[in-house]
Amino acid sequence: MYELEEPGVLRTRAFLDELRYRPSPWRARASGGHVGRNYILNGYRQIFPTRTNPIELTMGLSPYLQIGRIDVPAHIEEEFNAWYNTTYIPGYLAVPGVLRARRYVVSEGQPKYLTLYEFEHPDVSAGEAWNRARHSNPWSDRIRPSLSFDEGSPGVCQRIYPE
Hints:
Layout: H1 13-21, H2 25-30, E1 43-48, E2 64-71, H3 77-93, E3 98-108, E4 113-119, H4 128-134, H5 138-143, E5 148-149, E6 155-158
């Protein structure tokens, strides 16, 4: 995952040739000799929170991320966004081990939405507190059946660089 000034960087020769297709010697060593080619090469723009809290800029990088890639039917999109921002994310932010949450809308690629939770440890979303937050509001039970998740989503990833 890269934070970019604009998504067009993903299509530049420098990105595609040097980073994606010809990994550096360090990257080749770190991968154990196996460099993946199944990248998700989407550009997303942050929509939640609308502004980053200045205190968050002083915090270190999270060791684990849970990334969810979601599509939703157009007829419930406005309600989906209101639910996610006002009910769903706040419930999860109260779960022990959840550090932060952000949401994005696609500028290039599919699916349309991406949610990123930052965790202290990889098992946060497998715990009882996470499940209680998941089912804590009847609005969630109405919206959730309309969502379609991309293959492998949500998934928990461990940060490997920088250590």
